[in-house]
Design goal:
Length: 562
C-alpha cells in the first residue's frame, strides 16, 4: 500500500479480477496464487487457456509454474535486481512509452540512469535467472497491449519490500500499462477484508480513505467531525508495536489476529507479552495469543453479523447476518461501542450502516457508497465512487493518474539483512498452503482440511538433504539465531539448492520462531521471506518414508517437481 500510494496515489489493485481472463500477458511475482488466492488463480488459468503468456517469478516451483510459459526461479530477496534488469532492457531497447511518460509521470530520468548498470548478465549472476529469460520477459511485457502485474507477500515481506513495489511500479509507468483494461499493478490482498481495514484507516499514517495523519487540513476536518483533538504525529507501525511489547507498549488489544503465530521472532514477542500489564483478545475462537490474555471477548463470525467487506479489487460488498452468534458472542462493532461507552464516550450507533455512512461522509473515495446504493445496484461497488449517481470504478487511473503525475522511484538493490553463512548455511522462506489459512485459527478445526495437511513440514532439496543425512520424511531440527523447531523434512525439487521452505500455519512447529523481525524502513513489514537457518537430522529416524500416508497432493498441491 505504501509503495502504491507514493507512485500512483492509491493503495490497491488498479484493475479488476474479472479483467484477468482477458489479459494477453500476466507477470506473477511473489505470489503462490493457486494456493493463497485460488479464485483469482482461476481467472489466470482462463487467460492461459485462451493463449495469454504467463510468466511466474518465484524462488519455488509452484502449481502456477506448471502452466507458465516461463518460470523465473530467482534467488530469494533478489527481486530488485530482476526488476531493474527488466527495466534496463526496456530502456536500452527503446521499448518505453515515451508519450505516456511525458504526459503522465515525473522523475523518469532518475530511473533511466539508475537501471543502466543492471544488465541481464549481471542480474543472472545475482538472481540465478538466465539473462535470455529476463530479456524475453521484459520485451513481452513492454510490447503486449494488455499486460498486467500481480504480486503479494513474496514481494512485500522483505526488509526492502517497498523498494520491490517501487521497482514494479517503474515497469508499469515506463510502459504505459496503466489506466486501461487488463493491465496495471495488482497487489492480491493476503487476508479477507484487509483492504477494507486499510480503507477505514487501520494504519498509523492514514485516516479513512488514505488521508494523511500529518496533513493539517485533514486533521482539522476530522477534529471538527469527531469533536476531539487529534495527535498530529503518525503512530507506531505493527513491527514497532511488537518490538515494544512490555516496554513502551504496556497493553494490547488483539482483535481477529493470532500474533503469537503470525509475527516474526515470536520468542522475543512472547517475552514481551509476559511483561505486558494488560492484554485483551477479541476473536471467534481461543488462539495461541489468548494464553497471554487477561480478558477474552467472544466475537461473532462473518455469518453472524451485518456489515461490509472490501475485497482485493476495491469492491465494497454487503454481508448480511444469516444466524445469531452463539452464547455471549457479539459483533465486533457492538463490543467496541460497549467499551467506548463504558469509558465515557457518547457513541450511539444502532447499526453498521451508520458507521459506514460516517466514514464515507469524510472520505471522498467512498462518498457515493452506502448500504442503500449497494442494495439498489444488487452488487458491490468499487471505489472511488464520488456520489450515488456513480456506480464505481472498474479500473483506476483512466484519463489521468490519481496523484496527478505518476512518480518514478529509482531504487538500488539492497541484500536481505540475514543471508546464509558458515553457521547457518541454508536460506529459509515461509508461506501459505492451500489447505490452511494464516494462523489456522479456523482451518485447524476443520477435520477434512487437517486430514489433507495434518502437520508442519520442511521442503529441502534432495542434494541438501543427502549432505546432512536427512531421509525423505524424517524428523529434523530447523534452527536460526532466534529459535528452533522440529518438523518433518520432505525432499523436494520445488526449492532451489541452498533454500528450504515451510508453512507457518502450525502451532506445534511455529515457523515464526525462526524468522527475522527486521523491518522495511518505510512500512516496518518484517522479512518473513528470508532468514538463515541450519537443518539437522534428529537421532531418531522414526517416520522416514512416511509420505505414503499422506494424500498425493499434500506436498505442493500436486505441483510437479521441476
Amino acid at each position: 500500500m505504501a509503495g502504491l500510494v507514493t507512485t500512483f496515489g492509491a493503495g490497491a489493485m488498479t484493475n479488476s479480477i474479472r479483467e484477468i481472463r482477458d489479459a494477453d500477458f500476466l507477470f506473477v511475482i511473489g505470489s503462490n496464487t493457486s494456493e493463497a488466492h485460488p479464485i483469482i488463480a482461476m481467472e489466470m488459468k482462463r487467460a492461459a487457456r485462451r493463449g495469454a503468456t504467463l510468466v511466474v517469478a518465484d524462488p519455488r516451483a509452484i502449481w502456477m509454474t506448471s502452466i507458465a510459459d516461463r518460470h523465473l526461479k530467482l534467488n530469494p530477496g533478489t527481486d530488485v535486481w530482476l526488476l531493474n534488469a527488466m527495466a534496463h532492457v526496456i530502456v536500452a531497447e527503446n521499448l518505453v512509452d515515451q508519450a505516456f511518460i511525458d504526459a503522465n509521470t515525473e522523475h523518469f530520468e532518475e530511473v533511466r540512469e539508475a537501471v543502466a548498470k543492471y544488465t541481464p548478465e549481471e542480474a543472472e549472476a545475482v538472481t540465478g535467472v538466465p539473462a535470455d529469460d529476463i530479456r524475453k520477459t521484459a520485451r513481452e511485457y513492454a510490447t503486449t497491449e494488455r499486460a498486467g502485474i500481480y504480486y503479494t507477500l513474496g514481494i512485500t515481506e522483505h526488509s526492502h519490500g517497498t523498494d520491490n513495489v517501487y521497482a514494479l511500479s517503474n515497469l508499469v509507468l515506463m510502459t504505459g500499462h496503466l489506466g486501461k483494461r487488463s493491465t496495471g499493478m495488482n497487489p492480491l490482498r493476503g487476508q479477507n477484508n484487509v483492504q477494507g481495514a486499510n480503507d477505514a484507516g487501520a494504519t498509523p499514517v492514514y485516516y479513512p480513505g488514505y488521508q494523511e495523519v500529518d496533513d493539517p487540513a485533514v486533521r482539522a476536518k476530522y477534529e471538527a467531525s469527531w469533536g476531539v483533538d487529534l495527535d498530529p504525529e503518525p503512530g507506531l507501525n505493527l513491527n514497532q508495536m511488537i518490538k515494544s511489547a512490555g516496554d513502551r507498549i504496556k497493553a494490547f488489544f488483539v482483535m481477529g489476529e493470532d500474533i503469537i503465530l503470525s509475527e516474526p521472532n515470536v520468542q522475543r514477542l512472547e517475552e514481551g507479552m509476559n511483561r505486558v500489564e494488560f492484554c485483551v483478545v477479541q476473536d471467534i475462537f481461543l488462539t495461541e495469543t489468548a494464553r497471554f490474555a487477561d480478558v477474552v471477548l467472544p466475537g461473532a463470525c462473518f455469518a453472524e453479523k451485518d456489515g461490509v467487506f472490501t475485497n482485493s479489487e476495491r469492491r465494497v460488498q454487503r454481508v448480511r447476518k444469516a444466524v445469531e452468534p452463539p452464547g455471549s458472542a457479539r459483533s465486533d462493532w457492538e463490543i467496541l461501542i460497549g467499551i467506548a461507552r463504558a469509558a465515557g464516550a457518547d457513541w450511539n450507533y444502532e447499526h453498521p450502516r451508520e458507521i459506514y455512512a460516517e466514514m464515507a461522509k469524510d472520505a471522498p473515495k467512498f462518498a457515493g457508497i452506502s448500504y442503500e446504493h449497494i442494495e439498489r445496484l444488487g452488487h458491490g461497488i468499487q471505489w472511488p465512487c464520488s456520489d450515488e449517481s456513480d456506480d464505481g470504478t472498474t479500473f483506476l487511473h483512466e484519463g489521468g493518474i490519481l496523484r496527478g503525475k505518476g512518480q518514478f522511484q529509482a531504487v538500488e538493490y539492497r541484500p536481505s539483512l540475514e543471508l546464509p553463512d558458515e553457521d547457518y548455511p541454508l536460506l529459509l522462506s515461509t508461506g501459505r498452503t492451500l489447505y490452511h489459512y494464516n494462523a489456522a485459527t479456523q482451518t485447524h478445526r476443520a477435520v477434512g482440511l487437517s486430514e489433507k495437511q495434518p502437520e508442519a513440514y520442511l521442503e529441502v532439496h534432495p542434494s541438501d538433504a543427502r549432505k546432512r543425512g536427512i531421509e525423505d520424511g524424517a524428523m529434523v531440527r530447523v534452527s536460526s539465531r532466534r529459535g528452533d523447531v522440529q518438523c518433518r523434512a520432505i525432499h523436494s525439487r520445488q526449492v532451489k539448492r541452498g533454500v528450504v521452505w515451510m508453512p507457518f500455519h502450525f502451532g506445534e512447529a511455529r515457523a515464526n520462531l525462526l524468522t527475522n523481525d527486521v523491518g522495511d524502513p518505510v512500512t516496518g513489514t518484517a522479512e518473513f521471506k528470508v532468514c538463515a537457518v541450519k537443518v539437522e537430522a534428529l537421532d531418531s529416524t522414526d517416520g522416514a518414508g512416511s509420505r505414503e500416508r499422506f494424500p498425493g497432493n499434500y506436498f505442493g498441491v500436486g505441483c510437479p517437481e521441476r
